[in-house]
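Quick look at the format.
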Amino acid sequence: MHRFHCPRDLAPGARLALPAEAAHHAIRVLRLKSGDPIGLFDGEGHEFSARITTIEGGTVWVAVEAAATNDREPPLKLVLLQGISSGERMDYTVQKAVELGVAEIWPLLAERSVVRLDRERAEKRRLHWQRVAIAACEQSGRSRVPPVHAPLRLADWLAIWRAQRQGNERALLLSPAGGARLAALGEPQGPVILLAGPEGGFTEAEAAAARHQGFLPVRLGPRILRTETAALAALAAIQALWGDF
């Protein structure tokens, strides 16, 4: 059954139109017709079965039928801090991180980031990455959409975290020079925060600032991984060690 994100009040018996992007995908890509069953989720963890009733031009009307059980969120909260990479690399990282169960994504503007964004371009990219996250939820079966936050510099994120941290987080900095291995760490007692650099990695000053705030440098074996590989490999390993893999 095809699933669509519909951030509206969903309840059995409701009749509503799919959002424009979802409607276009349903008609032009999936070639769905009146009478076809679909799934709807609001992005907050609620999912419903539904059925297409009418297609009028580019508008797809659906009838919500019943609430559905969805238990696909991992028990371990994973937060990804990702140095912004260029082109499709960042899209790929966002997409696969959502499939792997990440709960939040913070794009970071690092000193060695190839991509440079002013405020207007940063918001456009954030909206684009959020759409990538929504599509990944539709594909992977998740009903809770992870927020993609506005891009920040690492120093600014660390300042926010310093003021809001709960004390039970495990903060990990991916580093080829890291001395710790994931498999040697004990099971976390709270959220895991994963910090991954852009194409050129973090500068020593950035890495030092992260370490000063409690981030533990860890390495993923003896090989140097590309930016679009490193965070995803770490997320998969974390899920296998302490999550629901």
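Next, a different chain entirely:
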Amino acid sequence: MIPSAEQCYELMKEYGMLDHIRAHSITVEKVASIIARGLRDAGENLMPDKVKAGAWMHDIAKTLCLNTREDHAEKGREICLKHHLDEIADIVGEHIRLKGYQRDAPVSEKEVVYYADKRVNADVVVSLHDRLKYLLEHYGNGNALICRKITENFDLCREVERKLFAKLDFDPQDVAGLIEKE
């Protein structure tokens, strides 16, 4: 099942999502929806409701995992499955690390949400460069291995960006302005 906006907001409340994480998720949904609409207009077969719900729910477990240090993407996937939200479980589960990416495959909803999440710092749309810098400073902890993994993940995200924007009639730097027009 793909949850409605109301169901997503109820689950955010049920799982005690902190206000700043909710604000981040709302902005990620805006970015993802603009990209998904553009891709649909370009002929891609995407489900807008799936993109929206996946974006709203991508950090559903983040608050729970702040103290446990569990993987919030995997925990979020489990929450989705528990609530019979099978159609968005993989989107939530892969919003940090995209698995099985294929450059030549059709664009997927999980690629759109994965990318949109990387473009939002708190609730502000930023470049991939700025988001990477933030993540390295806040999560790298000076650990070379962690920093390398984060950087490698952003190398993949740049590839996803090229794939998405090759089909769009706007550029990555236009996204923030498009959200303001909504």
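The longest strand covers residues 120-121.

See the schema section for token definitions.
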